[in-house]
Here is the input.
Amino acid sequence: MKGKVNSIQTLGTVDGPGVRFVVFMQGCPLRCAYCHNPDTWSFDEGDEYTAKELLDKILRYKTYFGITGGVTVSGGEPLMQARFVSELFRLCKDNGIHTCIDTSGCLWNDDVKELLDVTDLCLLDVKMTNESDYINYIGCGIKPVLSFLKKLSQINKPTWIRHVVVKGVTNTEENINGLAEIIRGHSNIEKVELLPFKKLCLSKYENLGLDFRFKDIPETSNEEIDELKKILQLKLGV
Ligand code: SF4
Here is the structure.
């Protein structure tokens, strides 16, 4: 089986613990208004790899992973190619490499279930905290995502929650309350990352002739992230 890959980052440090080989899969059914990777959306683009071909590349960097690093498969939406990612992760596990997916959690089927069996850590992007924002800014409802989180919780899968803070959309106290409500009670959640909205991707949109819906919204400062983190910690009592 071959997988369609958009790009590879050999020594990533922001997608999971430690130093990681990050594979960005091609294809995504969603259209997040702040998406950094609109070039991954189309299912017609991308380079084809077998899992073994990717593993051979990964093994060249294994010494950099140390105890905590490993491989992260992001996207696009990795769940769209769950069988391929499972095959890759099985090879990684055979070679003692930590595996992680970065997903929107927007779908569930038997292939996804099998993928989680060989996934050590799930980075789940809880993109919004209510149905109307999901429909308006993401392109799916919130229910599949909440259900995905519930399934992760039931199998006690180590999970990090990621949430992008966008001025006027997700930077409100009400939204942070909503995030706390979603997170509360799931003991598998090890970490919550609030990420600042950035506009580095603007040129990608221009090159693709696409409209970047949030182009007029200012980037989120680290100070604002720190403030919201404090509010979230208070809400969660941690
Ligand atoms: S799920 Fe990820 S790749 Fe897909 S549109 Fe959203 S941010 Fe972009």
About this structure: The first strand starts at residue 2 and ends at 12. The mean pLDDT is 97.
